[in-house]
Amino acid sequence: MKIKTHRMMKEYAGEHFFILSKGTNAGKPLAKPCPNCFVFLAEDAVERERFYWLCYGLWEGGFFRQFLSGTVIAFIHLDDLRQLIVTVAEKVAEEAESFGQALNALTTLAKYQDVLYEQLTLIQRAKRSLMYKMLK
Description:
The protein has about 140 residues and is α+β, with helices and mostly antiparallel strands. Helix content is about 55%, strand content about 15%. The chain is globular and about 60 Å long. The N and C termini lie far apart (about 55 Å).
């Protein structure tokens, strides 16, 4: 498992995802990079998915908040992030079957969420179009 500080304009080969490093959402996994994030370099797609959802669960559960530092802009140290992920990954490895089931459920729910988001976007466009035609 490799987690590094992301450098803008750097391209990564292989499986990877990004983890937000600053702000109140520090620890949130991301598919696309942003200026203040870390990059998680995975060995394969299975490892990427497993750790992406592990980080998502940690972020959603508020586990990263206790490691936030900084007075103006909160941030998480790379070593604290690594240590937490390793600790929780070892704990989850003991219950691999139930974690695998939860991972499948989370993946399915994420797909449904994407479909709903697309539908909401289309509804918003339709409303805008109707208002435009009405006020034209």
